[in-house]
Structures are given as structure tokens and as C-alpha cells.
Amino acid sequence: MHLDSPLRGLEANPDAPAERIRRATRRALENLIDFVLREKLDFVVAAGDLYDGDWQDWRTGQFLVSQIGRLTNAGIPCIAIRGNHDAESVITRRLRMPCLLDTKRPETIRLPNLPVSVHGQSFATRAVTANLAKDYPASDGDRFNIGLLHTSVDGREGHDSYAPCSVEQLSGHGYQYWALGHVHQREVLSDAPWIVFPGNLQGRHINEAGPKGATLVTVTDGRVVKVEPIILDDVRWARIEVAVPSEADEDTALALTRTRLLAAYEQAGGRLLATRLVLSGACAAHAAFSANVHAAREKLRAEAMTIDGPDAIWTETITLATKPIIDTASLRKREDAIGRLACALETIDPVQLGGVLKTYADKLLGHASWPRLELGDHALIKAADGEISPELIERARDLLLARIAEG
Description:
Largest sheet: 6 strands, mixed
Strand content: 15-25%
CATH class of the largest domain: Alpha Beta
CATH architecture of the largest domain: 4-Layer Sandwich
């Protein structure tokens, strides 16, 4: 759930729909509870990370308790464990949450009105490196057994190795289903027995793009007959890459970008679409883009706004990675001054260039009417510190080569 996950960096972007994005994890949880009540499901399990950390704001915990209370009032059990993010949470420890399983040893909950046993153990601390699953009890032979575990099975790439175990170990334990937490991308590791990461309810940033939600499991006569994703997110993150064809001018590139944005917005199903937009390719549009990068970005933002108003799509960042249409190999082969310049531009030393530009940047900042701090990580500040980014050098090189090619 990662309820009330902190979304760093939004304050630095005045155009960000910060409040909408901050509330997204709550709305996703509300969507889950609405779905469970509407479909009259039998019970819910959650495999850890109910919160994002050691929250001091009691409203986060109160909100979770109120949503679980909606299930309790409807007679629907909710069984959960703590993961690495909420293991040491003050809220988790002090609020009355009867659905949380023990931290000291694996615990089994046998549902009174269903032949179902849920086995699980919560994290006692943030970093649990022991294999918890090996101590889970044997299956109840006459019941449907669910293992609830927060883990990095087989050392999933990009995730800390907490409660490590293997698919082989889980498969041989005798349970009919393993409900796993920790990995935020939905993944089915096995269907005999079923071992599933449902992913998180709501993507928290651009690296958690695409549909998010829970997993609905249908069991008939003690056998899993269907396992399906249920989409519950309130904000959809999407990385949109636009390969601009060589013949495309600025207007064509803008229209192509709008088409890609529209397709992503339609896939988001009316949710707020938060995008990271990247335009690439050697194209005719590059000349207009590079002449005024700020204006190009604003034009692209305007294209997003025309789709369904200013609140439908938020462009978190726009990267213009287009290139000029030039034959650099031919330029370098020339034996005149242009050929020598083209070769020199290919061998620029960022450190040496930074030293040269530092003096000029200091002078510009000395004449600037705004405080240095207001510029943040602007390229001018980095130049004054003797730092020149490879991206800036590449843009300058492409601009110069384009001018040379134009004669």
C-alpha cells in the first residue's frame, strides 16, 4: 500500500499537481475497499509495507484503520503482515490493528467460516535478512493454505535482499498460494502452486509506471481457477518516448507527440497521467528545438493541455534529445578549417572546458539580478563550479555542427 508515501521533489516544480499526487495512495486504497465491498469478496490479505516509513502523523494510521473498519463492518476479514517499510512504524505499533500477524514467529489464522488457513510473519525490524519462510508451519491438509510473505524471492533485481528464499522452496512447502510483498512490479513466479507478487496499489514515481493494483484470486473446491490483476491506481505514471522521423519539422514533431500522449491518456482510463517525455532522433525539427529549448518545452506542454484540459496530463520532465541531420563523418574528413573544427568538437575535454568557462560564469552571476540560490542546479551554477554536463556539451556540439553543415 505504501500509504502516504512521501513524494520528494514536487515542491521544486510549481506546476506539479502535488496534492492530487500525494493523495493517490489513499485513493487507491479506497478503490480497493470499494471493489471488495462491491464484489462481496471473502477476505483480503496484504503482504507488508502498509505505510512508507516511521510516520509521526497519526492521520495516516487513522485513515488505514478507517478503511479496514469498512471491511470489518461488512464481515470481511483483512489479514496483513509488516514489511521492511512499516516494520518500525510508530503508528503500526500503537494503533489497534488486529489484522497484523506476529513478528516473533510465523502465525496461522484459520478463518472461521471458510476452509482457509493464512500463514505469515511480520518483519520485526526494517532489515530482515533471515529466511523466514523455512519456519512457516506445514500446511493444514484439509484446508486451502495461503503463505503471506514479504520477501525478495531469488534476489529480485533492484530490491534489497530481505527475507530471502527461492521459488523452489516456496513451491515445495505444500501451500496452494503464496501472496508476496516487497516487489512493486506485478509478477507471477509460478502457477503450480501459485506464487504471485501483485505489485503496489499505486505507482509512487516515474520508475513505477503503468497500471497498478491488487490481485483477485478465485478458488473453487480448494483449487485456484483464476488469478487476475485488478487495476486500482488513481494516478498513472508513464515514460513516453517519441522517435521523431528525419523529415519531421517542428509542427510534425509536436503533432506526433500529441498522438503519443493521447494514446497514453486513453490507456490511463481518465486518471491523471504523469509523464516523463523524451523526444529523440536526427530530424529537421532539431533546428527549431535547439534554437529555443524553453519555448520548445512549453509548446510540448501546451500539446498535452489540449488533450483534455490542464488537469489531465502533467509532464514531470521533458527531454529534448533530438539531433541535427548532419553527416559528421564527411565533415571530419575535410582537410580545411571546417574539418579540423569538426574533429576538435568530437574530442572536447569536459574538465578543461569547465575550467575555461568558470571565469565567464562567475562574471555572469556577478551581474545577475537574482540570488544565486534561486538558480538551483541550473547549468550556469554548475559552470561556475567548473562542472559541465556531457548533455550540455553534446547539445552545444550538435548546434555548432549543424551551423557548419548549413554553411
